Amino acid sequence: MDKLVSYTIKTVHKAYREKMLTPTSFIDLSLQKAKQTNELNAFVTLTEDEAENHAIESEKRFYIDKNTKSLDGISIGIKDNFCTSSIVTTCASDMLKNFVPTYDATVYSRLRNAGACLIGKCNLDEFAMGSGTVDSLFGPTRNPWGYTKDRWRITGGSSGGSAVAVTSGACVAAIGSDTGGSTRNPAALCGVVGLKPTYGLVSRYGLIPLVNSMDVPGILARTVEDAITILNTIAGPDVLDSTTFKEPFNPIELGDIDLGRVRIGIPKEYHCQGMSKEIIETWSYVIDLLEKEKVKMKSVSLPNTSVSIAVYSILNQCEVASNMARYDGVEFGLRTKEDSSTEELYASTRLKGFNNVVRSRILAGNYFLLTKNYQNYYIKALQLRRLIHDDFKNVFNGENAVDLLLTPTTLSDAPLFEEFTSKNNRDQCAYQDYCTQPANMAGIPAVSIPICLSKNNLPLSLQLMGPRLSEALMMNVAKHIESIVKFPALNYP
Amino acid sequence: MKLIKLYHQFNYKSRLASSCRFSTVSNKKWQSVVGLEVHAQLNTETKLFSGAQNVFGGVVNNCVSLFDAAIPGTLPVLNRKCVELGIMTALALSCKVNEVSTFDRKHYFYADLPAGYQITQQKAPLASDGSIDFQVFTPGVHKKPYRKRSKIKQIQLEQDSGKSLHDAELKRSLVDLNRAGAPLMELVFEPDLEDGEEAAALVKELVLIVQRLGACTGRMEEGALRVDANVSLRRPGDPLSTRTEIKNIGSVRGVAGAIRHEIERQRAILNNGGRIINETRAWDAIARVTIPMRDKEVVQDYRYMPEPNLPPLRVNLTTKDDHNDILSVLLIQDKLPVLPEESRKQLIQEFQLRPETAIQLVNEPVLLEYFQKLTTDNKRSSNKVANLLINDLLTVLNKRKLDVDDCPITVKQLKELTDMHLSKDITLDVCRKVLDELIALSDSDISPLKVVHEKGWILTSNEDDIKKLCVEVLENNPKLVKQYKEGKIKVFKALMGILFKNSQNKVDMAVASRIMEGLLKNDK
């Protein structure tokens, strides 16, 4: 079996110490894998030179300086909406096709400081607007599970490239972003762990924004433990992002926890229309499993869940309209040759630079923000967001409080490309993000864990959510589930 | 104070009856209403949300951080110093500092606005409900100062835009982002002024206050303080009617001129049965008219939205605990300097200066500093020192078209010169000449005494010398002497004039007058 698809940070480091592998040889293998799986279209840019240089530095620290860093020689992928100095950062958009930032996103610079080696920049839906990684300037990313040239499944999105980079063996871990489920959704469909940390725990500096008030850098990894190692590297205050917590971050430790003292809620509203039978069975399977482990399971209610997706959609479009205003062809990015007037330059640049999804969200967002509509849409949406936030607060506090919530991540296993693209982007997002976006609305942490394979031999995953900054408990429980279900690694030809 | 005001209004009306220069009351049908919005650049090392340098006149596009150019992925980080200066100004203007204020995005597309929105404080400003008290006194316009108060609606922090340069010939626009993201505080005043002179006086007082605070350089010529004026006319007792807005007026006299012109313009339209349209106008300082700005044909909807990347700005109103995230307003209050109005009171009470003199001194911080230094260490007559500064130094500087701020004369030189004048070693006329010479030389090492000696300007008060000169005048002008003796005492003035001329202004005229009179009387 292909070892590359099952290596973890620990096993790679063990191999380095035992000299079964060296950072340069492993990074070489990782790059080869990325090239071999080229047809999956996980990467927008392969950063071979960087990867090799990073590996040489790691190798020196490993064997000469004997001063190893926590992620030395670990292959990583970064979603192409995080700025990387001197490396093109496209957001999978014509607008930024040739945009080369002069600075590093905090997440990337922290990973680099810990010794991680960059394999490449990962594909996404244009400006992370999507839930399939099909709306990219560079074409769709393909799910390696059940892949054939003529019949393949979508990866989920918008961090589909990052998920595939991890599943396929090109990277041990990858960074995605999560605004409404963009990390957890592809993690679920590609069979990897997808962690969305608490809003404010990880710096957004250098992440090209979709919705500033919901965006969180996400982590895709093969194991819960690896996700935590990455989180411990990237989390913590950042003076460059005023929305990060000011308190110092204490690294999270995974250990044995007394499951008998953990209370997990099953929100009934997540049992929604359109949810596949297999997903519901998987959900029940894990509920039973946890009950056997003496976890206190109970049914809870988050009454405002059903409006969440509509509220999310309005807030998303408003912030998109605002955030996209800077793409005018003046300071950076695409500029058309139109020179009859400044206004014409803006219009033609934005028409050519943005795809239909981006343009329609800008249009809708600007409509909602008009003085005459502001109260009826934007303010109303904010008020509902507060109610959704309070739903979570209520289940996590008080007499009948639970510590965590267990829900499906997606409503089904990965759909075929043809199935998925028969619906438009907006309907797909409304459907695919149903279980994931409430956590973004509330700013709480959530993790998707692969559980088992469907009849189609595709990953089925569940999601844990917890109150703000409950990553330690949430990930410990996730690890327990992971150790029981023993989800298999990908068997890709 | 009320008395003065009544007097003023009376005076105003009587003058207006003859000339049509002022609009407020010349036509009783219309009452003019003026409200100001002032943008003051905060005098900080770095910009409002970025680490880029905040300087005027830097090399084009050289003080621009990634954030200022709206490079994707960058985020704003609030500059604590800006908050401090904003609060300081708010306190100096008796505003209520808000415990929590927030930032909003104001959207519009413009080439010198890289993000496509400006970060401002529309909904919950830094401070609100203040007022500014000021004296309205323009020498040559008002005979006496009168007090006026304007209410402040709010003070908010916001970003400045960059600058666009349009090259019509080559059909291209150039953008300089040095100013983009520079910290501004916008002060919104209620429409409670009546004319341009009041508005100009308000602006002048505001400049003095922000300069005292060190919050803003106040250099209007550099655009550090820019004024927008809302002007409308109504019938007394009616609600406010349609207004026009004059944008970006760049000098104190410009404020007075622009508003005066706009009131005249509106009144002419209304008197002809026309209608005022709500529009934005610009002040053409050379043609001295307001002209419509053409880019406002479409009503802008700024699509305000809360700035999601900045948490609410909190301040501590109750204790003197100060830490990185939350500033103590009480600590800032303690740091407030003496404000201009207090200075004027001090000058009037401690130095017995006339109100007009106090106003003029405080209006020129450099002169005030000279005054303070010249009156603290010595018993120089405060009134004479003040007069010398206002009448003589200022006149000399004006003649040379030199800004008071650039006056090269040192305190030491000024002290020496003043003492020579006060002890009657030189005449006032010579004193002015020396001032002029000192400015021309611009050399802090040169002693005024040396200048006087070198130029032979020293005043003769030696009685023998003066007597000799007097005798000479009497001998050479027997006709005048005869007339005097016949009772035509008026010719004394003529004799003194001749003496003054002969001596090249260098005799102490008081002594000379006594001696001359003695000689004429003895001669009887």
TrEMBL record, chain A:
GO terms classed as biological process: glutaminyl-tRNAGln biosynthesis via transamidation; mitochondrial translation
Which UniProt keywords are listed?
ATP-binding, Ligase, Mitochondrion, Nucleotide-binding, Protein biosynthesis
Which EC numbers characterise this protein's activity in its record? Answer: 6.3.5.7
List the active-site residues: K79 (charge relay system), S158 (charge relay system), S182 (acyl-ester intermediate)
> What's the domain of life for this entry?
Eukaryota
Q: InterPro entries from the xrefs?
A: Amidase, Amidase_dom, AS_sf, GatA
The UniProt entry's GO CC annotations, sorted and at most eight, read:
glutamyl-tRNA(Gln) amidotransferase complex; mitochondrion
Which GO-annotated molecular functions does the record name?
ATP binding; glutaminyl-tRNA synthase (glutamine-hydrolyzing) activity
**Domain Amidase, first and last residues per copy:** 30-473
Q: Determine if Ligase is one of this entry's keywords.
A: yes
PANTHER family, alphabetically?
GLUTAMYL-TRNA(GLN) AMIDOTRANSFERASE SUBUNIT A, MITOCHONDRIAL (PTHR11895:SF7), TRANSAMIDASE (PTHR11895)
Question: What protein am I looking at?
Answer: Glutamyl-tRNA(Gln) amidotransferase subunit A, mitochondrial
What is the originating organism of this protein? Arctia plantaginis (Wood tiger moth)
What is the gene called? GatA
Automatic annotation (TrEMBL), chain B:
**HAMAP family reported in the protein's UniProt record:** GatB
Specify the protein name.
Glutamyl-tRNA(Gln) amidotransferase subunit B, mitochondrial
Family (UniProt): Belongs to the GatB/GatE family. GatB subfamily.
Taxonomic classification? Eukaryota, Metazoa, Ecdysozoa, Arthropoda, Hexapoda
Q: Which ranges carry the Asn/Gln amidotransferase domain?
A: 369-520
What stretch or stretches form a coiled coil here? none
Subunit composition and interactions? Subunit of the heterotrimeric GatCAB amidotransferase (AdT) complex, composed of A, B and C subunits.
EC assignment: 6.3.5.-
Does the UniProt entry include the keyword Protein biosynthesis?
yes
Compartments it resides in: Mitochondrion
InterPro entries in the cross-refs: Asn/Gln-tRNA_amidoTrfase_suB/E, Asn/Gln-tRNA_Trfase_suB/E_cat, Asn/Gln_amidotransferase, Asn/Gln_tRNA_amidoTrase-B-like, GatB, GatB_Yqey_C_2, Gln_synth/guanido_kin_cat_dom
Which EC class does it fall in? ligase
Q: Which GO terms describe its molecular function?
A: ATP binding; glutaminyl-tRNA synthase (glutamine-hydrolyzing) activity
